Amino acid sequence: MTARTLARIQALSRLALGVGLVAAPGPLAGAWVGAAADHRPGQTLAMGLGGRDVAIALGTLQRLTARRGARAWLRAGIAADLADLAATVRARRDIPAVSVPVTVALAGGSVLLGAYLQAALD
Asked: pLDDT tier at 69 (50, 70, 90 boundaries)?
């Protein structure tokens, strides 16, 4: 599998998560932050994060199609994933216990994949 194909899969996964957070913030964010997602303020933040991921995904996909310029979008994804990872670790005592290792695995894996991809592309 090529780096470009992996980057497309990562971007499509980010797009799906982002659309899901915008469309159904309560259930999806609830798995991450627990009861905070049952209330409008938590859902508002989840929708904003979803919008962020949609934008990063669409920018990445557009640049991959153009076959140049994807590295900056991949770095934006890395920064977003690092922020999610740091926020999760910081809040680990106040969120569902299972969400910490899941987020560390998903966001951490995405950071590592993004680092590889931004070095391998362009």
From this structure: very high
d(CA 110, CA 25): 21
Q: Quick check: 34 pLDDT over 90?
A: no
49 vs 36: CA distance, rounded Å: 15
CA distances from 94 to 6, 80, 84 (A): 34, 21, 15
Give which of 40, 50, 37 is closest to 84, Cα–Cα: 50
The pairs formed by 39-46 with CB atoms below 8 angstroms and a separation of 24 or more are 46/21
pTM of the model: 0.92
Task: Write out the residue range of the structural domain in which residue 10 sits.
Answer: 3-120
The average confidence (pLDDT) of the chain is 95
Q: State phi, psi for 4 to the nearest 5 degrees.
A: -65, -40
Q: What is the count of structural domains for the chain?
A: 1
